[in-house]
């Protein structure tokens, strides 16, 4: 029973690692839901009305999912800068809500600034997105100038909740993230080898399906290798370690691809090339 339980747990961990490398999507979802839950847990007991609850939930959601930086220090700075941007955006939304033409012109200008902010990197993109989202929130809840002080307090709670969940409840370290990505690479590599074996054993009627599976798993392995490459600088203690990890990942990926090419060559009268592995619909 214990052995079967351990095997089931291992299969579940491998499935999660392969389907969500680094658990990035799971982490993002937990952070967003957690930030909303903390915000509502703080606001509801003090008698906040539905308008403030909605504004707080949307603020915490925007403050959580819009962060793009990878380093914790940079994330904290962006969160700190996001609050005054959100306050200014909501205030302008409330002040311009009765001036339709001016408000529409400002909304278009705000959209342009939000998109143009990408020119200034992840922080510019995040602040632009927060500004646009919070302007929309002010219009959605029908904010008026008289409601602004209460909305400012609600937004402060939302940003604080996002920070608590991000840095205390669901923390992510660069080293831990890189370790999970490497685990995902190993699992996807094993699945690619399994697909290669299945292609080798497939009959004439099953060859097309097995080849499609091989292409898909090759692409997923390549995707994971690129994700590891993008995290080496933050996730390794020094440059020699980063180079060692990079070389090992590249060697494993190249070896798996060459093995796949050999299998395809063995099953085909024509010589296979890398396009056969990576392009859907390419002739086998």
UniProtKB/TrEMBL annotation:
<keyword id="KW-0472">Membrane</keyword>
<feature type="transmembrane region" description="Helical">
    <location>
        <begin position="124"/>
        <end position="144"/>
    </location>
</feature>
<feature type="transmembrane region" description="Helical">
    <location>
        <begin position="150"/>
        <end position="179"/>
    </location>
</feature>
<feature type="transmembrane region" description="Helical">
    <location>
        <begin position="21"/>
        <end position="44"/>
    </location>
</feature>
<feature type="transmembrane region" description="Helical">
    <location>
        <begin position="100"/>
        <end position="117"/>
    </location>
</feature>
<protein>
    <submittedName>
        <fullName>FUSC family protein</fullName>
    </submittedName>
</protein>
<feature type="transmembrane region" description="Helical">
    <location>
        <begin position="50"/>
        <end position="67"/>
    </location>
</feature>
<keyword id="KW-0812">Transmembrane</keyword>
<feature type="transmembrane region" description="Helical">
    <location>
        <begin position="74"/>
        <end position="94"/>
    </location>
</feature>
<keyword id="KW-1133">Transmembrane helix</keyword>
């Amino acid at each position: 029973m214990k052995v079967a339980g351990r095997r089931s747990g291992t299969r579940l961990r491998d499935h999660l690692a392969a389907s969500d490398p680094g658990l990035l999507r799971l982490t993002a979802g937990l952070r967003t839901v957690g930030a909303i839950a903390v915000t509502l847990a703080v606001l509801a007991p003090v008698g906040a009305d539905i308008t403030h609850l909605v504004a707080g939930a949307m603020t915490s959601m925007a403050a959580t999912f819009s962060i793009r930086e990878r380093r914790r220090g940079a994330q904290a700075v962006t969160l700190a800068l996001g609050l005054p941007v959100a306050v200014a955006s909501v205030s302008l939304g409330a002040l311009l809500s009765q001036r339709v033409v001016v408000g529409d012109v400002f909304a278009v200008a705000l959209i342009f600034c939000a998109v143009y902010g990408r020119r200034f990197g992840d922080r510019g993109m995040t602040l632009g997105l927060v500004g646009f989202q919070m302007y929309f929130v002010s219009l959605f809840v029908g904010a008026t100038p008289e409601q602004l002080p209460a909305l400012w307090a609600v937004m402060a709670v939302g940003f604080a909740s996002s920070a608590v969940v991000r840095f205390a409840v669901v923390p992510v370290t660069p080293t831990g993230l890189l370790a999970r990505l490497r685990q995902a690479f190993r699992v996807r590599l094993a699945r690619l080898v399994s697909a290669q074996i299945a292609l080798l054993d497939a009959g004439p009627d099953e060859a097309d399906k097995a080849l499609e599976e091989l292409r898909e798993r090759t692409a997923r392995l390549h995707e994971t290798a690129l994700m590891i490459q993008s995290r080496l600088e933050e996730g390794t203690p020094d440059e020699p370690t980063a180079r060692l990890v990079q070389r090992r990942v590249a060697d494993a990926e190249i070896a798996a691809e060459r093995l796949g090419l050999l299998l395809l060559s063995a099953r085909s009268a024509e010589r296979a090339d890398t396009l056969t592995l990576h392009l859907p619909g390419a002739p086998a």
